[in-house]
Structures are given as C-alpha cells and as structure tokens.
Amino acid sequence: MRMRFPVASVCLAAACLGAxxxxxxxxxxxxxxxxxxxxxxxLVKLSQQPAAASAKSVGDDLLVEIDGVDLARLALDPPxxxxxxxxxxxxxxxxxxxxxxxxxxxxxxxxxxxxxxKLAEPKLRGGSSLMASAAxxxxxxxxxxxxxxxxAKPVAAEPPPPAKTPAPEKPAVKPAEPTKGLESRPAxxxxxAPAPSKPKSSATALANxxxxxxxxxxxxxxxxxxxxxxxxxxxxxLLDQGKTQEASNRLEQLAAxxxxxxxxxxxxxxxxAEKGDASNAEIGYRAAALLAPDEHVRAAITSKLAxxxxxxxxxxx
Length: 317
Prior knowledge:
The protein is an alpha+beta fold. Among the domains are: 2-119, Sandwich (Immunoglobulin-like); 203-302, Serine Threonine Protein Phosphatase 5, Tetratricopeptide repeat (Alpha Horseshoe), CATH 1.25.40. Helices cover 26% and strands 24% of the residues. It has eight helices and eleven strands. It has helices at residues 13-17, 203-206, 211-223, 228-240, 244-257, 262-274, 278-291, 295-302; strands at 2-6, 24-26, 28-36, 39-46, 52-58, 61-67, 69-76, 86-91, 93-97, 101-109, 112-119. Strands 2-7-8-9-6-5 form a six-stranded mixed β-sheet, with no helix packed on it. Strands 1-3-4-11-10 form a five-stranded antiparallel β-sheet, covered by helices on one side. A hairpin with a 2-residue loop joins strand 10 (101-109) and strand 11. Helix 7 packs antiparallel against helix 8 (295-302). The radius of gyration is 38 Å and the shape is flat.
C-alpha cells in the first residue's frame, strides 16, 4: 500500500525571519507513505538539503526533528483512511499523527528524509469492563420437589425355573504348528526425505562478496550512511538476508549519488528476479555485466543471462 500527500506551501515572513543563522528556509514538497505488513516507510521530500534528522514515537505521534532547514508552517489532513491522519510542520520539526510506531530510524537522502518504523501493538487506553455496571439477576430458590404417594402393585407368582440344558462339548483344537522355512522379518521403515530448501538470492555470489566483506560493509554504513563504496555491498548483503525493503532503500540511496555503480543494476535485477519479472531482471543483469569491475564478476553475472539466437550469453564490456 502506497499513498502520496502532495504538499505546496509558501514560506511565511515570520517563520523565515525567525530562522536560525545556520538553517536555510525550506518547504515540504511531498510526503510518501508505503506499508509492507507491519513495516512502514515515510519519505519526506524537501526543497533544500537537510544536514541530519532523528525521529521518535510519542503515543500516536511520530516526531521528526530535521537539522539544517527551517520549514515553513504546514498543516495537512490527508484523505480519510490514510495511515497518517494529520501532519504539522514548522521550523525543524515535523509531527505525523495517526498511528503508534516502534523501532524508528531515519536515513538522509538528497533533499529528503526517509523514516522507517514498525507499527506498534495497539493498547487499550482507559479501558473498563462493560459487565461491572450490570448487577447479576437474582437466582430464584429451587422449587420443592413433589413426591407421589406409593401405589401398591399385585405380586404375581414366580414361574418355576427352566431345566438346565447341558452345553455341548467343544472339540479339542490342536494348535497349528509353525510353518517351516518362513522367517519373521521386520516391517520396512519409511524415511521421508527433507523438503528442499528455497535457494537464497545469489546477489553476493555474483558480486564475489563473502561474509567478512558483508560485516565490514555494514559497519562502515553504520558509521557513515553515505559511504558509497560500502553502501552497494551492504545493499547486496541485505538481499541475501531476505531484507528486501531495506535493500531496496539502500539501492535507491546509492543510485541518487552514483547511478552508474554496477551494484545498482545488479541489485535491481535480483529484486526483479525475486518478483518473477524476467524481462527487467534480464535488463538489469546485462547492465551490471557491462559495468562490472573485473572479468570474474562479469562472467558470473553473464551466466544469469538467457542465451539468444547466435549468442551464448557473453557480454562485451
């Protein structure tokens, strides 16, 4: 589910005059909300580049503080049924109301801030029992049982017992001798073969990225979200870990500043292949093979291409 809230606002004179010296006047151009199960991504697009951002959840409000910009005042009520029901923004603060979130994180993009969060479990506020106010109806005492008077019944004379008939004698049955030559054999035990596991994404295998390199890339991105050399490796490692949404966000972040990076094409091809989109996967693999840094990686990516007439899957850089 993806919703967009177009925003158009003009910087008010009072807000602009009160802006700090280090903050530049800015406006919110757009707010995009997407949801994948309990995961929610909110992209706030700005007219200027932010320096830093942080977010926290307070009740049903998500408070976002953005450094480096002084936002014009904005009050927005999205359409009914939206996950976010109201938006307030002024100065360096944006308040998104309507849902309780947990595990909130932020990523800085070019003229944008991405907030990633999970929907928190709803809690009952000020709840009380609806049954407490209703007093139970009194239970009436049990009625006295009426016992009918006994009625005398005539006693009939008992008939004489019948003569006993001797039971016929059963013929003696000789037990059957065990058949010779037949040996008892245990019943065969059927062992079910384990179900084949679903193969994981081969993005890191194609890019020749091992576990140690994945760990180093994650550490570098944690220290610097814009570490371009590590950002591409980290995105491919997230694909192999099954974190599709986070991997897609990292790939778009890399594409914003390094669109010719071969790992952008490889990651997008792997995402398309996972969705069953063979056409876009083929286009992505071909682009990645053309931009690959060495022959080994280029050959590995080329092996994913379907051979065409007169061509055995080789790609000439």
